[in-house]
Amino acid sequence: MGRYYEGDIDGKFWFAIQSSDDGEFFGAEEQDSNWIDYYVDKEVFEEVNGIAKCKKALTFKHNGTTKRWWVLHDKYQKLIDKHYQDNKDNPETRYKYISFAKWLYKEHEIGTGDDSFTSLTSQDSEFQHVYEWLARLEMGRKMQRFFKKNPNEDYLSFQAEC
User: Fold this and answer.
1) Which regions of the chain does DSSP assign to beta strands (E)?
2) pLDDT tens digits for 33-78?
């Protein structure tokens, strides 16, 4: 269940976070259909410089040190991926892992450790905007990887569920 995009890049939109038209941030142009059909010109993608804009929005100061939300989230995701792999045959422990909020507090003294800090269900979540930018950056990174793996391609295309 959820909304997906597929084509030269594939993925799932982040539930309750990411809009189906998020590709437009990177210069994608909507095509007519029941899905949103996108075409991303390589030159436009580079000119828009969306990845740099995402990274700027995801950079912050904490206790006098520059932090980057995407770096923190990538580290946390690797921890969760390893936990899933280590517990793949044990459903009782597979989904019992440290929350992002608790990990941020324990490892980096960010937030309070209270899960409401990073909650998607809390209307007062301070983290809602961070998730929006992380989801957008993930899509942009997929576009960037596509163009790096396919240097002779001048464009990519994908369809997004509405």
Assistant:
1) 4-7, 11-12, 29-31, 36-41, 59-62, 65-68, 155-160
2) 667 888 999 999 999 999 999 999 999 999 999 999 999 999 999 9
Place of tokens 């006098």: 64
Residue-wise over 94-108: b if at least 16 C-beta within 10 A, else e?
A: eeebbebbbbbbeee
C-alpha to C-alpha distance for 162 and 87, rounded to whole angstroms: 35
Asked if residues 143 and 54 have their Cβ atoms less than 8 Å apart, the reply is no
Three-state DSSP class for 111?
coil
Which is nearest to 69 in space by CA: 79, 57, 78, 80? 57
The answer to whether 37 and 46 have CB atoms below 8 angstroms apart is no
User: With contact defined as beta carbons under 8 Å apart, do 121 and 130 qualify?
Assistant: no
Determine the residue type at 10: D
Estimate the crossing angle of helix 128-149 against helix 50-57, to 10 degrees.
150
CB 108 within 8 A of CB 72: yes
Whether the pLDDT of residue 24 is over 60: the answer is yes
Q: How far is CA 43 from the centre of its chain?
A: 23
- Look at residue 159 and give its three-state secondary structure: strand
Measured CA to CA, the distance from residue 26 to residue 31 in angstroms comes to 15
